[in-house]
Specification:
Number of helices: 16
Structural class: alpha/beta
Order of helices and strands: HEHHEHEHEEEHEHEHEHEHHHHEHHH
Radius of gyration: 22 Å
Distance between the termini: 54 Å
Strand order of the largest sheet: 2-1-3-10-4-11
Length: 328
């Protein structure tokens, strides 16, 4: 009798656990596959434990793909670059910027072929430049051309996803590319870094990757979103606390390389191409507090360049700092 009762208790417990697992909400979290600290989360179950979600991490090649996935409702939480964010908000996609994933520096740069004869921005006239159109890299390229006073029509801008840029580079089909890692490191083997997004930011064209959430989903899942951002903050602080410890042989770097396919030897340098902000700093007027103005400025630039048809008067409705404040 006792054996029968014990068997029943065990069976009931297993059934309860299976039911709990089955009831866990499936959430797809979008990301760009950069070897940044957040990839420690994609390689573990930390977010699942913190939120109770059944998490699927989905890699996107560019922000335009993220916009489509969020507009369809397939993805409710994702990384999104500042330029695609301005495009999405201007088009009325119902999302909100809730935190910064990273501020882009030399992680996105203009690489020129050593055989192209390009030694300055002025030399881009008449050249073929590959870039994922609609991305932060594209925004930086357009900003660089404007800063230099080069009409866009005097440069052949070829819209290509990262893998096609790598292929075109190998075939000598393009003279330059504004691109991110790991393609950046690949083409640098036969190219030279001319300028990075840190320089175009100083010229008035800042770029970043943000965490965006579907507005309705965010309102209904505030506690889980806050728990997610706390995990993002935790791994970013791990890096910020001792950057020198993230060497090629360190466990964090090995994990990032395995999760993204990046060369471990290149990961420490790639990390230096980004700025990672503690959540307590993100909620200041410099960052989330001023991001609506940044998005507006980006949208104004994109409209003037003919990339979007209209611009909203105010983008504050597309920013929500409450989640980040609660995650400090």
């Amino acid at each position: 009798m006792m054996k029968t009762m014990l068997t029943g208790v065990i069976a009931g417990t297993v059934s309860l656990l299976m039911a709990s697992t089955a009831l866990a909400e499936k959430i797809i979290i979008g990301h760009f596959g950069n070897p940044t600290p957040m990839q420690l989360l994609s390689a573990s179950d930390a977010v699942q434990k913190a939120t109770g979600w059944d998490v699927e991490w989905r890699k996107f090649a560019a922000g335009t793909d993220v916009i489509a996935a969020m507009a369809s409702g397939d993805v409710v939480l994702s990384e999104l670059g500042s330029s695609p964010l301005a495009i999405a908000a201007s088009q009325g996609v119902d999302l909100q910027l809730i935190a910064f994933s990273d501020v882009i520096g030399k992680a996105e740069s203009l690489i020129v072929s050593k055989d192209s004869g390009i030694t300055s921005l002025a030399d881009l006239k008449g050249k073929k430049v590959g870039v994922p159109v609609g991305s932060t890299a594209h925004f930086s390229l357009m900003g660089a051309l404007q800063h230099e006073g080069i009409p866009e029509g005097e440069v052949t801008i070829m819209s290509m996803p990262p893998d096609q840029i790598a292929a075109a580079w190998g075939q000598n089909a393009i003279d330059a590319a504004w691109i991110w890692q790991p393609v950046q490191s690949e083409i640098l083997k036969t190219g030279t870094l001319l300028i990075g997004a840190d320089e175009t930011a100083a010229w008035g064209f800042p770029t970043f990757d943000g965490w965006v959430v579907n507005r309705e989903f965010g309102a209904a899942n505030k506690d889980q979103i806050v728990a997610f951002l706390k995990e993002i903050d935790r791994v970013n602080k791990m890096y910020l606390a001792d950057k020198a410890a993230w060497t090629v042989d360190s466990e964090p770097v090995k994990t990032l390389a395995a999760a993204t396919g990046a060369d471990p030897a290149q990961v420490p340098e790639i990390l230096e191409g980004f700025t990672f902000l503690p959540m307590s700093e993100q909620t200041t007027d410099t960052w989330l507090g001023g991001s609506a103005k940044t998005i507006k400025g980006t949208a104004d630039f994109l409209k003037a360049a003919g990339r979007i048809d209209s611009v909203k008067d105010d983008y504050s409705g597309f920013v929500n700092a409450d989640f980040a404040k609660a995650a400090q």
